[in-house]
Design brief:
By secondary structure, the chain is an alpha+beta fold. The protein contains 28 helices and 16 strands. Helix content is about 45%, strand content about 10%. Belongs to the potassium channel family. H (Eag) (TC 1.A.1.20) subfamily. Kv12.3/KCNH4 sub-subfamily.
Length: about 725
């Protein structure tokens, strides 16, 4: 049973972990590169830090994480010296210090420096947290006489930053957590590591694409067909025997297969609570809580109703009547689950045809059961009042009715079912000979409905199978065609496994985003006004950046038409150092790192903008660093050529754009761009995380230039060393 595996490559989720576990009170932090001695440049700063200090992110990158730009006349020099010493010694440091915002206003800051290590225990980053405690300071001074000299509360709060990273702060009472922070810190390391993290999966979580789950799905499929066949049969044929016994006598105990099916459905519910699924973004979800919520909000109610153990009534010696058999028809809801999985077979024409034929046969089975049930009901209701109708019905089913008072005896249940199925199939296929016909009004109405349904089913199954497959599964057929072409290309050119995986993941992710629809081709026949409105809606996240606030609506519409989307898998290079810069890139999701000579210059996250500030001249812009994906990244970009053309149409905004982009760029990739740090010292550097994405043996904290066993790899097209 083919299923979509989802994206399962290991990712560096350090930035996502920091962003997720920091709440609003501890979101003011910067990350400094611990491998660049004495400077410790900022490689990432949070939005909360920018709001607190008033600086833009582009102004802070590559400045020292000591934050000298926040110092002022009241800043304590001894404390700053201790901070520098703590960084040099790579140890934790906490203090309260007066700092200054960009506007010049001072504030009391609770500062906490935390070293972050990699898998080898080497300090690679510094997490420097800032919290505005000016109000607390004012309260402390006001209540100094009541509280006393020593007030331990600020110190406890300084440790809450790391405790927040451990994910436990929200689970306990705030008062208790403050008293237990030190003990928790001593028992566990709450600080996330800067490394390529393998997928954390409990051993009790099943993979939805695993061999066991595939076999289980086939077993549940067979059980579903069994239910669809036996439930209508028991309701219509077996219920007659119960009614003849007075409506209170129980039939024979359920068969082993009935009990086994009920057990399978119950076990299936339990397994669904522990089975991964693919999210809308294409990622495989392993989190137990997310799996639980997803299942509860989707198919749990249907599965619960279908798994009700009605056959347990026999275990308690409860008589089973006709109503109980009618209740068991709710198990047919399980067929809805079957419809959900039919698309897994859509790529196989033979399987689709088999399923359609099985559906036709199942419908005929249901019609036969209803036909027999109507006949028996008509005999019982007319045998005492209408001798002619009773005689016709009894003659048709060969039931003795000489006195017109009884309907007992007659053919066996098997013979009655075969006769009913013969009539149902002859009516559905419109090839009946009339030897079994309708006599009462109820039977005639049912026969009319059967013929109408038969005409439709005959056309669907026997007349237009090919057309229906092409119409219903054209998009999926196109997907599998392109997938086959891609696999043939890989096989013919003998591409290595690494490139094969990158190509397949890129194709699958791109398809999941646009479903194989070429937006440009689709919208080319629409009016320009409508195309611009659609493009603005599709790219509204990028156009809402402060960089475009002063742009007119006409300018925004023109920009929206030249915005494109891109995707990077973990380890993919978006840009290489020395390449010609072709566009400005906006990170929609995921994490990336900016590298130069194996040194991490910046870590990019959602909402970051990278590119160049030189847009007025028609010249080739060389890049000064590499940009590599740490996780699966979705990007939007504007080509420099198209951007220049739009800015030429709006010269007033062009001047503002060129001025503001210098501050809005998270990192300027233009070669020769003047930064505070002109040249980084040649030291042990942060490793290229992405080089270890598909090779677990490559650990973090190892300078790639020092690996004696590393064999240089060549780019397949350019021949450059990777």
């Amino acid at each position: 049973m083919p299923v979509m595996r989802g994206l399962i490559a290991p990712q560096n989720t350090f930035l996502d972990t920091i962003a997720t576990r920091f709440d609003g009170t501890h979101s003011n932090f910067v990350l400094g590169n611990a491998q660049v001695q004495s400077l410790y440049p900022i490689v990432y700063c949070s939005d909360g830090f920018c709001e607190l200090t008033g600086f833009a992110r582009g102004e802070l990158m590559q400045k020292s994480c000591m934050c000298h730009f926040l110092y002022g006349s009241e800043t304590s020099n001894p404390l700053t010296t201790q901070m520098q010493k703590a960084l040099d010694e790579r140890r934790e440091f906490k203090t309260e210090i007066i700092l200054y915002k960009k506007s010049g206003s001072e504030f009391w800051c609770l500062l906490d420096i935390v070293p972050i290590k990699n898998e080898k225990g080497e300090v690679v980053l510094f997490l420097v947290s800032h919290k505005d405690i000016t109000e607390n300071k004012d309260q402390d001074h006001g209540n100094e006489s009541d509280i006393g000299e020593h007030h331990p509360l600020p110190r406890r709060r300084s440790r809450a930053v790391l405790y927040q990273l451990s994910g436990h702060l929200q689970k306990q009472d705030k008062t208790k957590s403050k008293l237990k922070i030190n003990s928790v810190r001593s028992n566990a390391n709450p600080v996330p590591e800067y490394k390529v993290a393998d997928v954390q999966k409990s051993r009790f979580i099943l993979l939805h694409y695993g061999a066991f789950k595939a076999g289980w799905d086939w077993l549940i499929l067979l059980a579903t067909f069994y239910v669809a066949i036996t439930v209508p049969y028991n309701v219509c044929f077996t219920a007659v025997e119960i009614r003849e016994d007075g409506g209170s006598a129980a039939r024979n105990p359920p068969s082993v297969s009935d009990i086994l099916v009920e057990i399978l459905f119950i076990i299936d519910i339990v397994l669904n609570f522990r089975t991964t699924y693919v999210s809308t973004s294409g990622q495989v979800v392993y989190d137990a809580r997310s799996i639980y919520i997803h299942y509860v909000t989707s198919w749990l109610s249907v599965d619960l109703i279908a798994a009700l153990p009605f056959d347990l009534l026999y275990a308690f010696n409860i008589s089973v009547n006709f109503g109980v058999h009618m209740l068991k028809t709710v198990r047919l809801l399980r067929l809805l689950r079957l419809l959900q999985k039919l698309d897994r077979y859509s790529q196989y024409s033979a399987v689709v045809l088999t399923l359609l034929m099985s559906t036709f046969a199942l419908l005929a089975h249901w019609m036969a059961c209803v036909w027999y049930f109507i006949g028996r009901s008509e005999i019982e209701s007319n045998s005492l009042t209408s001798w002619d109708i009773g005689l016709c019905l009894c003659t048709r089913v060969r039931a003795p009715n000489g006195s017109g008072m009884t309907v007992s005896g007659g053919p066996s249940v098997r013979s009655s079912y075969v006769t009913s199925l013969y009539f149902a199939l002859s009516s559905l296929t419109s090839v009946g000979f009339g030897n079994v016909s309708a006599n009462t009004d109820s039977e005639k109405i049912f026969s009319i409905c059967t013929m109408l349904i038969g005409a439709l089913m005959h056309a669907v199954v026997f007349g237009n199978v090919t057309a229906i497959i092409q119409r219903m599964y054209s998009r999926r057929s196109l997907y599998h065609t392109r997938t086959k072409d891609l696999k043939d290309f890989i096989r013919v050119h003998r591409l290595p496994k690494v490139l094969e995986q990158r190509m397949m993941e890129c194709f699958q992710t791109t398809w999941s985003v646009n479903n194989g629809i070429d937006v440009s081709e689709l919208l080319k026949d629409f009016p320009d006004e409508l195309r611009a409105d659609i493009a603005m809606h599709l790219n509204k996240e990028l156009l809402q950046l402060p960089l475009f606030e002063s742009a007119s609506r006409g300018c925004l519409r023109s920009l929206s038409l030249i915005i494109k989307t891109s995707f990077c898998a973990p380890g993919e290079f978006l840009i290489r150092q020395g390449d010609a810069l072709q566009a400005i890139y906006f990170v929609c999701s995921g994490s990336m790192e900016v590298l130069k000579d194996n040194t991490v210059l910046a870590i990019l996250g959602r909402g970051d903008l990278i590119g160049s500030d030189c847009l007025t001249q028609e010249e080739v812009i060389k890049t000064n660093a590499c940009v590599k994906a740490l996780t699966y990244c979705d990007l939007q970009y504007i080509s420099l050529k198209g951007l220049r053309e739009v800015l030429c149409l709006y010269p007033d905004y062009a001047q503002k754009f060129i001025t503001e982009i210098r501050n809005d760029l998270t990192y300027n990739l233009r070669e020769g761009h003047n930064t505070e740090v002109q040249q980084l010292p040649n030291v042990t550097t942060l490793p290229l995380l992405s080089n270890g994405m598909y090779n677990p043996s490559i650990m973090l904290g190892v300078d790639l230039r020092d690996r004696a066993d590393a064999t240089p790899k060549k780019h397949p097209s350019t021949g450059e060393s990777l």
